[in-house]
């Protein structure tokens, strides 16, 4: 078990990629704090699955767009488990609106949940890791759209582009503390956020044709990369993003 004895926080951890990351880290022996905003019953189910693996998990209801909630999340983790080793900034939303259509409210929602939460999640987690003196891992779940335009989804692209530079700059600043910061940029993944596409055979065919591997990723395939970055196998990986897109960026126009 690559993460035995480690403690990880996963924001937005009770659905989609977040839930897969929670289970993936637990399978490697980590104890998990699951951040969530809604559906506590789903969080309860995840806690039971993790307990069956022999690890511990707690759910914490926190709005990660609020700094005080992020602080509560980390304080609760340390109170329960004594330390924090891995911070996964995963929470994210999108509005699917263009530069001409995006409202101030939409802009603020996307930037606060996606980018502000990752910025201050990184800051507060790093402060705790520095206090502990043993280093740590901070992993930002971005998107291929940190670097690849997606017309009609501009606020989302902006937030992910910001996470790209957050990852690189904070990694350089925190390296002296043995805190590694890396990103994971999924392409198309079979999660609830893509359900409208998955329910439309024509859209699915178009999407699959745009991916050299010929299919969307499974959430577990993203989680396995996160588990690698969280482990000692990746102790020389920092200030970069691992793209997990089945080759899509190398072949297709922005989607």
Which architecture would the CATH scheme give at its second level? 3-Layer(aba) Sandwich
CATH homology superfamily = NAD(P)-binding Rossmann-like Domain
Distance between the termini: 38 Å
Query: Would you tell me which CATH topology applies?
Result: Rossmann fold
Number of strands: 7
How much of the residues is beta strand, in percent? 5-15%
**Overall body shape:** globular
Radius of gyration, Cα only, in angstroms?
17 Å
| SSE run | EHEHEHEHEHEHHHE
CATH C-level: Alpha Beta
- Name the poorly predicted regions: none
Continuous helix count:
8
What do you see in this structure?
By secondary structure, the protein is α/β, with parallel strands linked by helices. The chain has a single domain, classed as Rossmann fold (3-Layer(aba) Sandwich). The protein is 45% helix and 15% strand. It is built from eight helices and seven strands. A seven-stranded parallel beta sheet has the order 3-2-1-4-5-6-7, sandwiched between helices. Strand 4, helix 4 and strand 5 form a beta-alpha-beta unit. Helix 1 crosses helix 8, helix 3 runs parallel beside helix 4 and helix 4 runs parallel beside helix 5. It is globular.
